Amino acid sequence: MGQQQLLLIVLGVIIVGIAIVVGINLFNAHSVSANRDAVASDLNNLGALARQYYNKPHAMGGGSNSFTGWDITSTGLSSTANGSYTATVTDQLVSISGTGIQVGNDGSTNIRETNYTTPVGDSVVVVN
């Protein structure tokens, strides 16, 4: 084999190696983004369930214009394939914290997001 052929083989191996590394990095970035979106979706669903409880009268098992009494464990969604969730409930506010399964922006702890549910709407805040 000539030197030119060996050089082409080495160059080909380097290019394939770089392509593999770039592909792995893109896959990891997409996994984190997908988990962040899934946790936000779960938080919005839990917020909607809390607001349903708020709007139902006591006679139908609701809160009659109060979040007090709503329990995240009653939804069966305190843990999903996307992460785990906890809630702090007051009369007019439910704070739902979600922890994802992928490592977040700081590079050491998992994704964390918080949903603040009020009688009129939700807001999701990215913590990590």
Summarize the SSE layout with pairings.
Elements: H1 3-55, E1 83-89, E2 94-103, E3 110-118, E4 121-126
Antiparallel strand pairs: 1-2, 2-3, 3-4
Question: Strand percentage, roughly?
Answer: 25-35%
Please tally the helical runs, counting DSSP H or I stretches of 4 or more residues: 1
Biggest sheet character: 4 strands, antiparallel
Count of discrete domains: 1
Instruction: Report how far the terminal alpha carbons are from each other.
Output: 54 Å
| Low-pLDDT regions | none
Overview of this structure, please?
- The chain is α+β, with helices and mostly antiparallel strands.
- It has one domain (3-126).
- The protein is 41% helix and 25% strand.
- It contains 1 helix and 4 strands.
- The protein has one helix spanning 3-55; strands at residues 83-89, 94-103, 110-118, 121-126.
- A 4-stranded antiparallel β-sheet has the order 1-2-3-4, with helices on one face.
- It is rod-shaped.
Summarize the model shown.
The chain has 1 helix and 4 strands; from the N terminus they run H-E-E-E-E.
Key descriptive features of the protein:
128 residues; four-stranded antiparallel sheet; 4 strands; 1 helix; alpha+beta; rod-shaped
